[in-house]
Fold these 3 entries.
Entry 1:
Amino acid sequence: MAFESLTALLAMGGHAPYVWSAWGVAAALLIVSVAHARAERRQLIRELQRRNRRERNLSERETDER
Amino acid sequence: MWAFIHKLGSPKWFYAISARLTPWFWAAAAVLLVVGSVWGLAFAPSDYQQGNSFRIIYVHVPAAILAQSCFAALAVAGGIYLIWKIKLADMAAAVIAPFGAAMTFVALFSGAVWGVPTWGTWWVWDARLTSMLIQLFLYFGVIALRGAFASRDSGAKAASVLALVGVVNIPIIKYSVEWWNTLHQPATFTLTERPAMPADMWLPLLVMVLGFYCFFIALTLTRTRSEILRRESAKRWVRDLADGHAGGRR
């Protein structure tokens, strides 16, 4: 460890605002990227499923009418 | 060879092969980034001149390297799309551009914040910083051009051309610290020499760089797969695939 305590680590020898804001922005953008990619994938699959269901219902109705 | 390239360019084949690769890259990224962060933040020694503000290097350098790599990847994908009309290359380009812009922003922001305690200023109009800012605007241009056309193909072509033209900025950024007088220090990692800093400082940096690369690959694979679902949604295999998913998860 380069620091005596957790408080010393958080204080970063007086450089806390610089170190933590730079790391914070980097971490935030990475986390947002992952969350967005997951949400995007889930939403696309749900949309495809909805469309499949709609078309299946539609073709069933057509056969019923005949 | 040509058969292989053709196969690689097929969205269906890519979708299948990337399904197996993607989790490994996510896992590698998670491990490398956690190890690199703990190592860099808590265990690496502080710099004898800069103190602990030097720990910004562990996000600044990987983000800056990724910013360049993403743009190079954009140019390669753009070239492939323009020459061979391989749609997959354009799908990859569409998802790489926003991430590259984000990385450029991280590099600029962390650099500015680092500049305050180190140089006494958060911004100077010197060669490295200015060329990096131009890089950010090039990313914005590529992203905006893609959406500026009524037809997807026109937007894709325009974005590809800008990526190919804009790639000229990459060597300018790289050599800016040698060609001009600049506040910015020269590269930490070169292929030919050992880093000028002790190993317990640059090893965590290497871990972080590898972690960022794995993250980039994992994210690009994941989002290219989504892009395939979006653009190929009329294809039989894509619709069958959606039915195989329970409740829209994974």
Entry 2:
Amino acid sequence: MDILSNLLLGLSVALTPENLLYAVLGCVFGTLIGVLPGIGPSAGTALLIPLTARLPPTGAIIMLTAIFYGTQYGGTITSILLNVPGEAASAITCIDGHQMAKKGRAGAALSVAAIGSFIGGTFATIALVCVAGPLTQVALEFGPVEFFALMVLGLSLLMGLAGDSMVKALMMGAVGLLLAMIGMDPVRGAPRFTFGMMELLDGLNFVPVIMGLFGLSEILENAEKKLSQSVGAEVGSLIPSRQEVRDSAAPVIRGSIVGTLLGLVPGMTGSMSSFLSYSMEKKLSKHPERFGHGAVEGVAGPETANNAHANGALIPLFTLGIPASPTVAVLMGAFMMNGLIPGPFLFREQPALVWGVIASFFVGNVILVILNLPLISIWVKILKIPYSILFAVILAFMVIGAYGVENSIFDVAVMLISGVAAYLLKKFDFPMAPIVLTLILGPVMERALRRSMEMSQGDISILFSSPLAVVLLILSAVIIVTSSLKFIPARKWSGGGDAEV
Amino acid sequence: MKRISLLAGALFLAFSLVVCAASWSMDYYSSLGPGPGFFPFWLGALLSLLSLIWIVQVSLEKGEGDGDVHFLSDGDGLLRVASIVGALVLIVAFMDTIGFQLSMFAFLLFLLIVLGRVKPWLTIVVATAGSFGLNYMFTTWLDVQLPASSITALAAIGL
């Protein structure tokens, strides 16, 4: 009953004309980012945060979350029509989606993907609605000690985002934490690393840093490679055949479950969900030989899974305040920019906002189906705009976006420095995700730790005084240890004992 | 690539040592627990350790590592990257002086010429829309104030 009344409250907020407009705009921008190869969801979401700076908080968050899950829809279009993934989670769709397009079934592939995405996104949102209440009740019992342990758990996600080198991921994590230290000390107000600059007293603004790390660095990388314009396949009829509908049903159900569950797991990305779904469908298929030659199951499963993942990844953010992926971390920064700390307290203090945003996911998924099917020809036309114009215009928006946060040219300089630094760091394969995560969680964690220590007059054992905190710390240790195992070379011992790596 | 990686490792190490030194001058600990210098100091120390590990890892790599990979691309690619960075540096330097509209017009004009072969009329249209048009859109509809020129003559004509 509680769930229903909360949902009704949310729908009453999400369905106001103003919030509907923000959801539509978010879906349009999200699809656009997904459609454009070379701009990923993290970069796109970061680039568009300044657009929401002047909006009311509910509208801003509705729009930004719509941008976030809208990218998953848009990425499919280029995968199917051009064989170029708009974003990583849709890469696997290229295999069978583009083969379907070559056979004149592009429209059917796009329909199956859009409907699957709708079902996956809706399924994960229902899961969020169901678990939000119980999880937040537990989290509301948290004091500074438990909160510190929860943040340690959040930072242990770094291991999941480590990529090929744990050392590099940890280095970037430390750099992010150091950047977060710039400005006034959160407890005593002493300035740290401000070098006498007034602009740094309030700390580095999150938005220009993220715009540089993700947005500018991606543009520089693409400018270096010089993307070439591709010619897309014809869309054709949007209506799938009966056989295609029958073949898609089970993969959509399985994709919804896989995506939602993996979305909950810290460090898992949308592409992992879609890859797992694809391999599962191939394994379960009676005709695995069809995969790679235009099997509709190879589109339905992964596309459902990546959307379920996107919405599922919002569950830890909304209930516990933990971002499970870099893009969700960017989203968390947007919450904070609007003076909102995602987590259990938000449910108690701003129920209309939280449930309004959650209800907007249902609305947004409907909008995205409409945007992606009847309006598909518009997105195809956008792909014909030369990249030089797109990049120049995006750069202009970035300058305005960075400037508009505080009406300061200093922030444009911060974006530029962050972007160039990220571009150079990526040359050495340093991952950017840990910087974002620590930049956002670092100050929260430091505040929680220092408050805990003040409560105990400097006695560190307070951190282990709460059973819940101990459980969370043990869980963090387990995540760190299990994630570290992948960096230990597997050894096969044979005969005399020579190790083969 | 190996030598550049070693150089980068050394830069990280130097940076982390500077952080340690700077945080040492802040309060490290008090009766109430960690002071403002506590976290930065240990983060600097951690970064030093990680930088050293990375330097050792790179040193132990056989041969030139990713020897075939150029750190920066040659020719056209590098020119495009340098153009974008240079144009952004100039906009940071001059936007407060000549105002958003003129600086952004020049910025877009330059980038469109350097980044791609776009027809001249289209270049002018995009540069005008991206500077004067965006200024109108942001100041009128979105209530975002973009910088006007600090030169009186330019400010007087709405730039």
Entry 3:
Amino acid sequence: MKFLRITTPVLLALCSLLPLSAAADTVVDLNLYHVMQVRDTGEEVSSLYTMAGEASVSFKSPNEGNVRGDVALSIVDMFKSGNWIPVVQIDRAYLRVRFPSFRLTAGKTRVGWGDGMLFNAADVLFGSTDTGVNLQDQELRTSTKWLTSVNIPLGAFSFVEAVVVPPEDLADAELWKTTLGARYYTTVGSMKVETGAAYRADHTSGNPTGQVVSPYIALQGNVGADWYVATSANLAYPEDIAEELKDSWMLSAGLFHLVNVGWQGTLSFRLETLVRPFGDWEATNEADKNYGLYLYPEISYAPSDTWSLSLRSIVSPLDMSAVVMVGGSWNVLQGFSFNGYVTANAGESDDAFPWQSASALSPSVSATVGMSWVY
Amino acid sequence: MYRSNNMKIRMMAIVMVALVSIATVGAMSAEDIVRQMDALETFDTSYAEGEIVTTDRFGVKTSTFRSWSRGAYDSLIEFTSVAERGQKVLRTEGELYLFYPDAEELIRLQGAALRQSMLGSDISYEDMTGEKDTLSQYDVKLVGNERISGRDCYILEFSAKTRTVAYPMQKVWVDTGTYMVWKGEFSTKAGRLLKEMAVLETMTVDNRTLPKITKISDKMKRDSATEMRLSRLDIDVDLDPVIFTLQNLTW
């Protein structure tokens, strides 16, 4: 109820924009949920129960003509210093213009390089390697940045793309800290081939390496199941190139297979891995873990277009820990769904996914039951 | 998201497959009828607008779409209803591309995702636009004639030759004049009825009689039915080749 009371004025203010956007398609995505958590710190076991919510409003231009735009704002109820504080953030705000020989995009949006639900070594601009994601989210990687991109088609299924990402930290927004990227996307036979690179400054937090170029290559094909692999590494200057190359080299790979069950149902299997050949290959007690191997298995079963069940997990084989999420969704009415998820950590206190943790961000068990409506 | 779209695409696929018909005259064997249907299941090009209306005991859910098809392989479907607005599926020879605009996510699928049967029967993504060869998968018998919706129809019975099809048995009523499929029953090998399809309303396009509203009932569920309603269908129209490219998919 706190969420509704606090965010209603904000929603009303947003809705007042609607008449101004008569030509735009407005979509509201409202999520309300009960959250129950159990936290075992090793010294005591505590529980938490609350209700929270999130709303987003998107104003999309009609799918006509040679100019497109989308503005999406979300309101999240954040708990800070003992109070619930509504936070409004810009999820997307971009213009896209189509010219005869290229396409220009400017604003806050995302570019999806490479393949991978959780692990994607080719995502050198946004990063898709950390394991601190919410497995209950339908999309695990959705962060956006202010950027400008130019996309030039080279055929029906080939293109080149160049991206400019200005510095995000205004306290450190010098011109030379602009991030640049470019990629080439094509198909060779039945295989997709994608290669590119990103340039940026001060890449490594806490251990700046000066200027860094991160090349990558990503391939995708089918061998009964769909497969995808990618690899990337950093070429640093003026740091020791060989050392940085070794430390930053990573590979990601995945398999995806989908089968019909009955006349409506689908069952899908996904397995992804992230490999850092020169990472840590033994269990470590350090807080910042740089393990050489992680796995992401996912099984989803949808008996119909109304029901879906899913099992997701991030596994750290080197310390034998994992976070596991089991969830379900029931799309009972037009745009309206009931959702329920349970997430639990399984590991010792020094592991990547510990059952016992003093961190408020890492409960031992978390259960979420709620509803969402898109209208 | 993908699962939900997948179902809608299946719905469209079976109707799009059923859309194709042409008038011929004279006595035909069951195999001749099937060959005739298969040969005519691909338009050179088409453009359609419509909606998929699902009704169950909780109410009605509607998804709207636009679709384009070209030749034996290429098709593009764009969802226009609120929850899925802008999501697109591009099918080409051997590939399936999905685009989710909110996440700027372009997903390329091949293999099983492309070949999986649609509506659990003999229809797959490949059937949406590809040339069908029903006789390679089914034995067929002409078992009689019957009037459906005031039209004389052949009654064909299909039995599967392989285990890769979800429906081992099918019974189809085919218009003797237009070759439009008026009715279908889809069953297990033991003869248990799983699904019924019926054309409720037709339309005339380019001198062909085609389904306008098709109802599909899941016999395993009570009070559940899905209708595919086409509000517009243009066939053999000029389509810009750019429609079937990644540039248009991600636009």
